[in-house]
Write a structure and sequence with these properties.
Elements lengths: L3 E4 L6 E2 L1 H14 L7 H7 L4 H9 L11 H18 L5 E2 L3 H10 L3 E9 H11 L6 E5 L12 H10 L6 E5 L2 H10 L2 E5 L6 H7 L4 E2 L2 H9 L2
Parallel strand pairs: 1-4, 1-6, 4-5, 6-7, 7-8
Antiparallel strand pairs: 2-3
Length: 224
């Protein structure tokens, strides 16, 4: 049985795509860009809000050139502010997540969230949904030298806080970024099929442990 489980947030614990899509489309609309359908936004998430904005501005539907430099940073600030204010409008845990997390807690398994989401928004979501069952949250914090996933920095920081080694932990996510993150951390990984990527996409990225339900995930991480 693993001593700890490190979870990605969006697409793994939380079904947050509607709020992410609403936020990016609000910023695009404000500045005269074309809004994007949900499935397109879904394919653009996983690397944080900055990369989501870059991809949205460069989307083939756009008739305006993407902004750069200070203007891009101003758009990004607007996006972060809007998303923080609306990040719980439609976002909910996936069915079975809370039961699974309680079961891990009862077995004494430590848990953490590691996400490329802005640290403030990530912390607010953790406090609202998971504060009683997950003990550590690590969000995007490059200002303090912590590189985003798929670099191992954020996961290693979470493991340090949990006082657990990578060999005694399992990383759980839903995207190609997560598969690469687990590989870079030299950790066992389990990848969920209810999130933002298909089974085919995860397999192509190199995922070899795929789970269809939170109950199945619990069995994987508690197996002796």
């Amino acid at each position: 049985m693993k001593q700890a489980v490190i979870f990605d947030l969006d697409g793994t614990l939380l079904d947050s795509i509607a709020d992410l899509a609403a936020a990016i489309n609000e910023i695009l609309k404000r500045h005269g860009y074309e809004t994007l359908p949900l499935e397109t936004v879904n394919s653009y998430v996983g690397n944080g809000l900055s990369m989501l904005l870059k991809r949205a501005l460069k989307d083939e539907r756009q008739r305006k050139a993407p902004v750069e430099g200070d203007e891009f940073q101003a758009y990004l600030k607007e996006l972060i502010t809007y998303y923080r204010a609306h990040c719980m409008d439609q976002t909910v845990p996936y069915k079975g997540i809370e039961t699974m997390l309680l079961a891990l807690k009862e077995k004494g398994i430590k848990t953490a969230i590691v996400t490329n989401k802005n640290t403030l928004a990530a912390t607010e979501l953790w406090e609202h949904f998971f504060k009683d069952v997950i003990t550590v949250v690590v969000g995007e914090d490059e200002a303090h030298g912590i590189k985003k996933k798929p670099a191992p920095d954020m996961v290693l920081e979470a493991l340090r806080k949990l006082e657990v080694s990578a060999s005694d932990a399992c990383y759980v996510g839903d995207s190609e970024v997560d598969v690469e993150t687990a590989r870079n951390c030299k950790m066992e990984g389990a990848f969920v099929l209810w999130g933002f990527r298909s089974k085919e996409e995860l397999k192509k990225a190199g995922a070899n442990v795929l789970v269809e339900t939170p109950e199945e995930l619990k069995e994987v991480v508690t197996h002796d």
